[in-house]
Design goal:
With 158 residues, the chain is of the alpha/beta class. The protein is built from 6 helices and 5 strands.
């Protein structure tokens, strides 16, 4: 009986560890913040990115108006991005936007469907800023897009 109990306990522990590792691997995917290559921006720090995507700032540091792009609620990329960026849960971020929307102080970023759409919009708009999963910066530059910030688990700003 004790052997069977130990075997079940070991299987439960292994499943739990495997599940946690699988979740961590998904979260370790670097995210790039992108802007139009003609925007004049080459770098944004974490605080600047957070201010833009949370509606606290309406322009880039160079004075150009900023038009952040976001993904629909429930998007895994959105969840990862905001949790890394702010250190808060996505439900806290959604509640934040609900309060701001209700008070009429500001509106959330434009919602788009997928990263390919965001790359297309950013490539044609000097004011647009978006976030995507890591891609080759050289290929992005060919599309008229430049990476200005990379968010990884261990970096605060670049």
């Amino acid at each position: 009986m004790r052997t069977a109990f130990k075997a079940v306990l070991i299987m439960v522990c292994l499943f739990g560890v495997t599940h946690v590792v699988a979740q961590q691997e998904e979260v370790l995917v670097p995210i790039q913040v992108i802007v139009n290559i003609d925007s004049g921006l080459i770098r944004l720090n974490r605080h600047q990115v957070m201010s833009l995507f949370l509606g606290r700032a309406r322009s880039f540091p160079n004075g150009l108006n900023a038009k952040p792009l976001d993904y629909r609620m429930g998007s895994e990329l959105r969840k990862i991005f905001f949790e890394w960026l702010t250190g808060k849960s996505i439900s806290d971020i959604d509640a934040y936007w609900a309060r701001l929307r209700y008070s009429g102080r500001t509106s959330p970023p434009r919602v788009i469907e997928d990263p390919e759409m965001s790359i297309g919009i950013v490539s044609q708009n000097n004011n647009a800023i978006a976030y995507i999963r890591q891609q080759d910066p050289t290929e992005l530059a060919k599309l008229g897009v430049v990476v200005v910030h990379v968010i990884t688990k261990n970096t605060e700003s670049m």
